């Protein structure tokens, strides 16, 4: 199923749905979040997380006209995986603005060094920000959109009892963590075999 204008709830319907289901929506988002070092986290997206994000943006900004809804769909719908990949939002998180500015400058290019691997096999690096035009500014960004394009052999191995690791090998920010069994199960559901 894809997210379309017709598959979204009205603001009124979403307000009612949100009251009943917000805890489970947030639990699903939390399941698909991985902390990768002190200031680096990834939110693996799927139809549910993206639909939630769109509905929340419509609610917060009180968007109910077709052009505004279509604009949100155009911005967020490409984050839904298509069966051969995983998509994630990479966030560089700093509470202090001065620390954030320094951190973003120091970590410029980190988005190109995020990877997944199975049992120490060849790493698959994310393709970062492919739909965005970015200048050569040294400012950097605190949010990046990643796509992990997974070859069919890689997807096949995931169905075995393999250990999936998520990592980053950017100089000065090297981290790798095993992906929990629950997250792996959720990520496998995003794929076509």
Label this structure with key terms.
6 helices; about 190 residues; globular; alpha+beta
As a percent range, the share of helical residues equals: 25-40%
Low-confidence runs = 134-138
Biggest sheet: strands side by side, in what order?
A: 1-2-3-7-6
Distance between termini?
A: 17 Å
User: If you compute it from the alpha carbons, what radius of gyration comes out, rounded to the nearest whole angstrom?
Assistant: 18 Å
Number of domains: 1
Q: What string gives the helices and strands in order?
A: HEEHHEHEEEEHEEH
Q: How many distinct helices?
A: 6
Task: Name the average pLDDT.
Answer: 92
Which quaternary structure do these chains form?
single chain
Organism: Roseateles aquae
Protein name: DUF3501 family protein
InterPro entries: DUF3501
Pfam families: DUF3501
Word description of this protein:
The chain has a five-stranded antiparallel beta sheet with strand order 1-2-3-7-6. Helix content is 37%, strand content 24%. A hairpin with a 4-residue loop joins strand 1 (33-35) and strand 2. The chain has one domain (5-188). The protein has helices spanning 11-31, 47-60, 66-76, 97-106, 152-158, 181-188, and strands spanning 33-35, 40-45, 85-92, 114-118, 124-125, 127-128, 143-149, 164-170, 173-178. By secondary structure, it is α+β, with helices and mostly antiparallel strands. This is DUF3501 family protein. It comes from Roseateles aquae. InterPro entries: DUF3501. It holds the Pfam family DUF3501.
Outline of this structure?
The chain is of the alpha+beta class. The chain is 37% helix and 24% strand. It is globular.
């Amino acid at each position: 199923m894809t997210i379309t204008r017709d598959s979204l709830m009205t603001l009124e319907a979403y307000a009612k749905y949100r009251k009943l289901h917000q805890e489970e929506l947030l639990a699903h988002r939390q399941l698909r979040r991985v902390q990768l070092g002190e200031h680096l986290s990834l939110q693996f997206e799927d139809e549910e997380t993206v639909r939630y994000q769109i509905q929340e943006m419509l609610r917060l900004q009180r968007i109910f006209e077709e052009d505004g809804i279509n604009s949100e769909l155009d911005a967020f719908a490409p984050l839904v995986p298509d069966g051969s990949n995983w998509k994630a939002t990479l966030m560089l998180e700093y509470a202090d603005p001065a620390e954030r500015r320094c951190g973003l400058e120091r970590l410029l290019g980190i988005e190109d060094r995020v990877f997944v691997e199975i049992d120490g096999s060849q790493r698959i690096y994310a393709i970062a920000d492919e739909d965005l035009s970015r200048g050569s500014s040294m400012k950097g960004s605190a949010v990046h959109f990643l796509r992990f394009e997974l070859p069919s052999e890689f997807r096949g191995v995931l169905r075995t009892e393999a250990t999936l690791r998520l990592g980053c090998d950017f100089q000065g920010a090297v981290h790798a963590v095993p992906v929990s069994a629950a997250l792996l199960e959720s990520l496998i559901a995003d794929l076509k075999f």
